[in-house]
């Protein structure tokens, strides 16, 4: 069976779990649930190129809204001359150093709730260049490059949750391991793509 669409994936979950015609335990809604739970696991554990996105932040106040699909910051810098790499600080450290009454060119940030918080508070309008890891749209609404490359993550993740639902502990353990193996392959493939298989070299000076 091909695994190129959401419908093909949900059919495969039913087939692999051995309940193709089961309308009691694995209803359409429950199959959709286990696929969605698999997506939660994927974005909790994986950080790969297909999940990267960039955005410009208008920094003209101490806070700016966090993009709704963000799950982790990869890089944030101020587009100034010279460029300023923004330093992340945990909130207690940040507020011990900055307050709203201190203004200037920001060089640090923290995250609280749905907002980035900058320190010092900006004394003018700046542009922040954000590179971040994002949660991709739910597969039920659109396929994506990560699914096209590794549909096994959705399949095995969904099967693990389906087996938990049907109380099949042996199958759940099996599919959890297959899911973990898929995550490891995705990480390895991502590293090869970034560095071409060459060992990292530490440069001094």
Describe the structure.
With 205 residues, the protein is α+β, with helices and mostly antiparallel strands. The chain folds into two domains: 6-48 and 137-188, no CATH class; 51-134, no CATH class. The protein contains six helices and ten strands; from the N terminus they run H-H-E-E-E-E-E-H-E-E-E-E-E-H-H-H. It has helices spanning 6-17, 28-45, 91-97, 145-149, 151-165, 169-195, and strands spanning 52-59, 63-65, 70-78, 84-85, 87-88, 103-104, 108-112, 115-119, 121-122, 126-134. The protein has a four-stranded antiparallel β-sheet, with no helix packed on it. Helix 1 crosses helix 2 (28-45), helix 1 packs across helix 5 and helix 2 (28-45) packs across helix 5 (151-165). The chain is elongated and about 65 Å long. The relative contact order is 0.19. The model has no long low-confidence stretch (mean pLDDT 90).
């Amino acid at each position: 069976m091909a695994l190129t669409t959401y419908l093909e994936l949900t059919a495969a979950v039913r087939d692999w779990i051995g309940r193709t015609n089961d309308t009691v335990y694995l209803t359409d809604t429950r199959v959709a649930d286990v696929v969605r739970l698999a997506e939660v696991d994927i974005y909790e554990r994986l950080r790969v190129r297909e999940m990267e996105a960039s955005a410009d932040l208008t920094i003209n106040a101490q806070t700016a809204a966090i993009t709704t699909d963000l799950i982790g910051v990869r890089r944030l810098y101020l587009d100034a001359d010279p460029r300023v790499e923004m330093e992340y600080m945990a909130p207690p450290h940040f507020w011990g150093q900055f307050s709203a009454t201190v203004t200037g060119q920001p060089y640090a940030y923290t995250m609280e709730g749905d907002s980035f918080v900058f320190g010092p508070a900006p004394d003018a309008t700046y542009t922040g260049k954000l590179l971040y890891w994002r949660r991709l749209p739910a597969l039920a609404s659109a396929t994506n490059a990560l699914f096209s490359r590794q549909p096994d993550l959705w399949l095995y993740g969904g099967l693990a949750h389906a087996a938990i639902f049907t109380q099949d502990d042996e199958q759940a353990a099996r599919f959890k391991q297959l899911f973990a193996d898929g995550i490891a392959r995705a990480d390895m493939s991502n590293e090869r793509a970034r560095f071409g298989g060459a060992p990292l070299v530490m440069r001094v000076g």
